[in-house]
């Protein structure tokens, strides 16, 4: 074997010119491959870890309301968090974070800019470390961020600070819509100016999430939406989204409350014609106008309760119940109709139109909900209003957007809850990742083609030139197999040496390119980290690619080598 | 001397009680404002929005405005500039849609959302009853916050009202209404935390039949300095408008 190795190395050196050209081709290809994969890895790292994660989290649970679905509100975040915790294995769950943000008009020193106020939690050391990973404070003091003595302390990016013409301790006035629909105006105090490592974060103005919650008008038990961060999100995101979606199925709007100390269950019916028909087929209105009773403010009471409380159509009464977070709540109703029924609705039931109760239900979440005796598959169950509308899962961003457009056309006070993953929420970014992977794959294929053609051509020439030599070495005792091995080894040596050279060259090129600073103000700046191109050299990937290239070159060399080995000795010597 | 002091005290008390009791009730003023300016017929007009923004010059938007009395519906169809032509805002019932000619799409918008990026919002074109939305603000003694004041040389009542519902964009308003006919001359809009956000000046009223219509008002953005919008009404007609005007199909058909 040693002899064979020696012979193949000697042959490589003998055919210097041709082998150098082939070696350069393979080395160049390998260099391009390493650069392309490192660039792709770096870009995916920026897009996936920095952008996707902060745009949509790995999983998002959104509560939406308002005419344009632009009011994000989860009325009972503790309940949703509990469902999330039940749905996701502890080992796969990293964190559940609130997503609090608002695009606002900000007035600095004689300048006006749009900024994005983002509520963040930097209270623990771990969270502060995370901040330091993404930001470098260039002016001011991070510690003031959590100060209670400063009016809305914020950390602002250097770019926004420049645009707003503000420095540390300056105020920024902002006008923003609150979740309640009211307009709020406050002065924020700049406590630090930071340089984010990603231009994507330049627009953000960071505010402590407790203060942001207060500013945006959320109660402590409410949230805009919840972002869930997972371990191994590419594997887990969709799986857990489906489980979570299943577990977030809403129950009926059903409140355990009282009218004048008499226990009465409040149920709500849907506002659509089909539901109203179903309702009318289950009850018999014995007093009052049907149309008014089924209007958006419709209120119906079972005969039993009406008789017991001596209530008549047109009477005003209070319905009180214990809310989960704000004590007892009293809601005033005017009775529109009294009904009788052969179903369970004949019990102590107050029926109201869902549209008339949704807002109250969300603002004063009931402490005790239903003692549910209506079967889930029954038509009556479907006619009754649910706590929220759970939107169907979407498979991509297009579907997600279409779903939101269609939902925004439906005028209702009912909240919609949607569960999405990064694959839907930020699918355009993930498409970029796919494109990058495709480009890398094309580079690899081109490289393989170069090797294939180069090796075949070189070996063919080599065999032709060295036919007498093959005859000679066969005549002095070398076996067919040895001849074959010499040619294969020659190719493998050439590939290995040139690939290693290509890898070393690529590392040098990456060091140079990675050191260059780019001042970009367009979307391309999104792929930069600290204003530099982000390259991630994956040694495992390089070794795998190298092995693959060696394997291909070996296979490619095998067939011409076999042909050479099979040459009859006499014929070869005659050549 | 004692007699003189007593007379002075009585005069002062009389003056004080007179000035307190002479003040009209705010709710009555709101009702009177509605009686004076709230139309009870359909209306068609040409509306011009002139927007002035710092560093952006002056933009002029012209539109046709249709208002149906029966259900408080309205339609605004843009005429110019060309880029905005046939875009529109339609309100039917509680729904307000924004229509974009290019995409041929209707999108729900909020009442408080800006029209064309100006200071005007759909809320400004609603024909609501004031006392259904606002109630008087009371001081610490439970008295209505109302006082006499002057705008230029015109005597006015200045009073504060607050929204009855939690979703009104500016929950507090200060009205400055003429003492002689209760027409508003100025309204200040305050944010939830009491910051002055907008001031509307009602510059010109015309009397049509028995109603007063403000045909020129200026909305001054108190948050963004030098940002203001002038809204002017012209060619007002109170004739009945065909119902088909207040349909999405009509708005869509304009751009075909």
Based on the model shown, name its key terms.
heterodimer; A: 575 residues; alpha+beta; Cathepsin D, subunit A, domain 1; 3 domains; 8-stranded mixed beta sheet; 6-stranded mixed barrel; 22 strands; 48% helix; elongated; B: 256 residues; outer membrane lipoprotein receptor (LolB), chain A; 14-stranded antiparallel beta sheet; 4 helices
Q: Concise description?
A:
Chain A has 575 residues and is α+β, with helices and mostly antiparallel strands. Chain A is elongated. In chain B, strands 1, 2, 3, 4, 5, 6, 7, 8, 9, 10, 11, 12, 13 and 14 form a 14-stranded antiparallel sheet that branches.
Broad shape of chain A: elongated
Helix content of chain B: 10-25%
In which order are the strands of the major sheet of chain A placed?
13-17-14-18-12-11-15-16
CATH class categorisation of chain B:
Mainly Beta
What is the makeup of the main sheet of chain A? 8 strands, mixed
Count the strands of chain A?
Answer: 22
How are helices and strands ordered from N to C of chain B?
Answer: HHEEEEEEHEEEEEEEEH
Runs of chain B in which pLDDT lies below 50 for 5 or more consecutive residues are: 14-20
Number of helices of chain B: 4
Our Rg estimate of chain A from Cα atoms comes to: 35 Å
Largest interface: A-B, 23 and 25 residues
SS summary, helix count of chain A = 19
Any idea what the shape of chain B is? globular
At CATH's second level, what is the architecture of chain B? Clam
Distance between the termini of chain B: 88 Å
């Amino acid at each position: 074997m040693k002899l064979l190795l020696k012979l193949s190395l000697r042959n490589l050196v003998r055919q210097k010119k041709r082998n150098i050209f082939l070696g350069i081709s393979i080395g160049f290809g390998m260099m391009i491959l390493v650069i392309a994969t490192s660039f792709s890895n770096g870009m995916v790292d920026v897009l996936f870890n920095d952008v996707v994660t902060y745009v949509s989290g790995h999983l998002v649970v959104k509560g939406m309301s308002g005419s344009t679905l632009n009011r994000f509100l989860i009325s009972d975040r503790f309940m949703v968090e509990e469902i999330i915790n039940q749905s996701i294995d502890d080992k796969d769950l990293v964190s559940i974070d609130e997503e609090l943000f608002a695009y606002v008009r900000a007035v600095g020193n004689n300048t006006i800019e749009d900024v994005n106020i983002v509520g963040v939690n930097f209270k623990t050391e771990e969270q502060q470390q995370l901040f330091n990973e993404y930001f470098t404070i260039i002016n001011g003091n991070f510690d003031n961020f959590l100060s209670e003595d400063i009016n809305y302390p914020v950390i602002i990016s250097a770019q926004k600070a420049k645009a707003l013409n503000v420095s540390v301790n300056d105020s920024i006035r902002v006008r923003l819509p609150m979740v309640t629909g009211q307009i709020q105006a406050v002065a924020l105090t700049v406590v630090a100016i930071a340089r984010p490592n990603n231009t994507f974060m330049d627009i953000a103005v960071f505010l402590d999430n407790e203060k942001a919650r207060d500013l945006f008008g959320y109660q402590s038990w409410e949230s805009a939406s919840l972002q869930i961060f997972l371990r191994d999100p590419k594997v887990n995101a969709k799986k857990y989204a489906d489980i979570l979606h299943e577990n977030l199925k809403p129950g009926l709007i059903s409140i355990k409350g009282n009218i004048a100390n008499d226990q009465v269950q409040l149920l709500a019916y849907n506002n659509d014609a089909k539901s109203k028909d179903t309702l009318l087929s289950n009850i018999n209105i014995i007093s009052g106008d049907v149309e008014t009773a089924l209007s958006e403010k419709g209120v119906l009471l079972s005969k039993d309760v009406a008789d017991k409380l001596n209530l008549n159509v047109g009477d005003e009464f209070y319905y009180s119940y214990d809310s989960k977070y704000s004590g007892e709540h009293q809601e005033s109703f005017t009775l529109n109709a009294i009904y009788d029924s052969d179903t369970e609705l004949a019990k102590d039931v107050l029926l109201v139109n869902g549209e008339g109760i949704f807002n109250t239900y969300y603002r004063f979440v009931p402490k005790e909900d239903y003692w549910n005796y209506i079967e889930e598959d029954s038509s009556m169950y479907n006619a009754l209003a649910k706590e929220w509308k759970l939107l169907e899962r979407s498979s991509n961003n297009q579907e997600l957007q279409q779903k939101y457009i269609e939902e925004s056309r439906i005028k209702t006070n009912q909240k919609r809850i949607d569960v999405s993953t990064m694959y839907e929420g930020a699918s355009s970014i993930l498409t970029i990742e796919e494109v990058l992977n495709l480009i890398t794959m094309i580079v690899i294929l081109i490289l393989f083609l170069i090797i294939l053609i180069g090796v075949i051509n070189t070996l063919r020439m080599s065999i032709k030139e060295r036919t007498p030599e093959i005859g000679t070495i066969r005549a002095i005792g070398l076996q067919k197999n040895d001849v074959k091995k010499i040619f294969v080894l020659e190719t493998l040596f050439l590939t290995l040496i040139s690939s290693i050279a290509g890898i070393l060259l690529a590392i040098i090129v990456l060091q140079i390119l990675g050191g260059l600073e780019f001042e970009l103000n367009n979307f391309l700046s999104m792929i930069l980290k600290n204003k530099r191109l982000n390259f991630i050299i994956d040694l495992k990937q390089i070794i795998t690619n190298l092995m693959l290239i060696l394997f291909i070159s070996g296979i490619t060399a095998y067939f011409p080598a076999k042909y050479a080995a099979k040459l009859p000795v006499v014929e070869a010597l005659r050549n | 001397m004692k007699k003189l002091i007593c007379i002075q005290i009585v005069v002062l008390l009389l003056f004080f009680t007179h000035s307190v009791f002479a003040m009209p009730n705010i709710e009555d003023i709101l009702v009177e404002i509605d009686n004076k300016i709230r139309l009870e017929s359909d209306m068609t007009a040409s509306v011009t929005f002139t927007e002035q923004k710092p560093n952006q010059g002056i933009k002029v938007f012209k539109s046709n405005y249709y208002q149906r009395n029966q259900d408080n519906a309205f339609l605004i169809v843009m005429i110019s500039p060309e880029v905005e032509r046939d875009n529109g805002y339609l309100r039917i019932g509680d729904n307000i849609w924004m229509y974009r000619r290019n995409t041929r799409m209707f999108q729900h918008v909020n009442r408080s959302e800006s029209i064309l990026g100006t200071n005007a919002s759909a809320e400004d074109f609603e024909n609501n009853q004031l006392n259904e939305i606002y109630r008087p603000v009371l001081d610490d003694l439970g008295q209505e916050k109302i006082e006499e004041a002057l705008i230029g040389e015109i005597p006015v009542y200045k009073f504060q009202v607050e929204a009855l519902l939690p979703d009104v964009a500016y929950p507090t308003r200060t009205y400055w209404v003429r003492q002689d006919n209760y027409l508003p001359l100025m309204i200040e809009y305050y944010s939830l935390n009491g910051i002055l956000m907008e001031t509307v000046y009602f510059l010109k009223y015309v009397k049509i039949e028995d109603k007063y219509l403000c045909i020129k008002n200026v909305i001054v953005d108190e948050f963004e300095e030098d940002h203001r919008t002038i809204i002017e009404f012209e060619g007002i007609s109170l004739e009945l408008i065909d119902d088909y005007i207040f349909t999405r199909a009509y708005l869509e058909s304009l751009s075909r």
